[in-house]
Design brief:
With 130 residues, the protein is an alpha/beta fold. The protein has a single domain, classed as 2,3-Dihydroxybiphenyl 1,2-Dioxygenase, domain 1 (Roll), CATH 3.10.180.10. It has three helices and eight strands. The strands form two sheets. Strands 1-4-3-2 form a four-stranded mixed beta sheet. The termini are far apart. The model has no long low-confidence stretch (mean pLDDT 88).
Length: 130
């Protein structure tokens, strides 16, 4: 078994697409900026984050037609230099909710939200530093 992706159900596909591509700097697979689906990948690794238009999935699973409330997910991305990455993404429009700050003696984190309110945690693993 292999984890192919984590998929987020979104209502404003275009805004979320811009966030993951233009703000976070992830690479879109096909360039489908208006949906209904797109997978994003970091520069390294095989894991991916995908966006799925919520209305389209509601045609398959009716319960998804209800308005989503509360925090439904936490996307975690590891970066090599948290301060530099946070400076890059804030210059592209991201708003940090927290950090960069230590979470444990092994990692530093920062948190932000995408346009749908999904939480994104950026991690810098201190144990990997030389």
């Amino acid at each position: 078994m292999e984890l192919a992706q984590v998929r987020l159900m979104v209502t404003d596909f275009a805004a979320c697409y811009r966030f993951y591509a233009d703000v976070l700097g992830l690479k879109p697979q096909s360039g489908a900026a208006n949906g209904p689906y797109e997978k994003f990948s970091p520069a390294v690794g095989s894991a991916g984050i995908a966006l799925q238009d919520r209305a389209m999935m509601a045609e398959v699973l009716g319960e998804l037609g209800d308005e989503a409330t509360g925090h439904r997910s936490l996307v975690v991305l590891r970066v090599d230099d948290l301060d530099a990455y946070c400076a890059q993404i804030t210059s592209r429009g991201a708003t940090l909710l927290h950090g960069p700050a230590p979470m444990t003696d092994r990692m530093r984190v920062a948190h932000l939200k995408d346009p749908e309110g999904n939480l994104v945690e950026l991690q810098e693993w201190l144990l990997l530093r030389g």
